[in-house]
Amino acid sequence: MSEQEKLKIFDDNRNLIGVASRSDVHRVGYWHEVFHCWFICNEQGIDYIYLQIRSKNKKDYPNLLDITAAGHLLADETVKDGVREIKEEIGIDVAFEELKQLGIINYSVVKENFIDQELANVFLYLSENNFDDFTLQEEEVSGIVRAKFTDFTQLWYGERDEIEINGFEINNDGNKLIIKENITRVKFVPHEISFYKEVIQKIQEQIK
């Protein structure tokens, strides 16, 4: 996404106050809308959560694990248009009506010369896809992995220090490498722990 693309901006009460370029949004720290979609699948009675590996070429948080598919909503887009992020990033066609809405979560990160204040429209997709179904937008996403949802939950609630992930990554030569490893929280994009916990709670309500 270009730094000059336009995003809607909001005040602290989520009231629309105008439009600004992406670069200004992150420089000034305007609240803006993003789309998040988490994939969960159930195999033989076990729930798994899918995570993307961010491309090593990403300016922010390269090579870290993140939401299955996510992105900014442009000024001329509605929340429903966010499903394009799923198709663009991981190559899965999903209709908006197939998603379960988890609500809007405020999310804030402040770094040097970068203030990211997001109104995250968060969704859940109950997936029946396997790893072969994913086609990655390699400048954005370099791999897809999954973990047992109970393990993921325990990791963010501090009940375990590491979890096992498995999946694949596309290397520099365009070849698919199989991944199976144990990882800690350090491997994830540093969203606030409260954000991960809120997402987990909302997913749990949907998959009981």
Describe this structure in words.
Helix content is 19%, strand content 42%. It has one domain: Nucleoside Triphosphate Pyrophosphohydrolase (Alpha-Beta Complex), CATH 3.90.79.10. Strands 1, 2, 3, 4, 5, 6, 7, 8, 9, 10 and 11 form an 11-stranded mixed β-sheet that branches. It is built from 4 helices and 11 strands, in the order E-E-H-E-E-E-E-H-E-E-E-H-E-E-H. The chain is an alpha+beta fold and 208 residues long. The chain has helices spanning 22-29, 83-90, 149-156, 193-207; strands at residues 6-10, 16-21, 31-43, 46-54, 65-66, 69-72, 100-111, 114-126, 141-148, 163-170, 176-183.
Task: Throw out a few tags for this protein.
alpha+beta, Nucleoside Triphosphate Pyrophosphohydrolase, 11-stranded mixed beta sheet, 42% strand, globular
Summary, kept brief:
The protein is an alpha+beta fold. The chain contains four helices and eleven strands.
Order of helices and strands: EEHEEEEHEEEHEEH
Task: Output mean pLDDT.
Answer: 95
CATH class: Alpha Beta
Characterize the overall form.
globular
CATH homology superfamily:
Nucleoside Triphosphate Pyrophosphohydrolase
The proportion of strand residues reads 35-45%
Query: Would you give the CATH topology?
Result: Nucleoside Triphosphate Pyrophosphohydrolase
Oligomer: single chain
How would you classify the helix and strand content by structural class? alpha+beta
Helical content stands at: 10-25%
User: Low-confidence stretches at least 5 residues in length (pLDDT < 50)?
Assistant: none
The major β-sheet equals: 11 strands, mixed
Architecture (CATH level 2) name: Alpha-Beta Complex
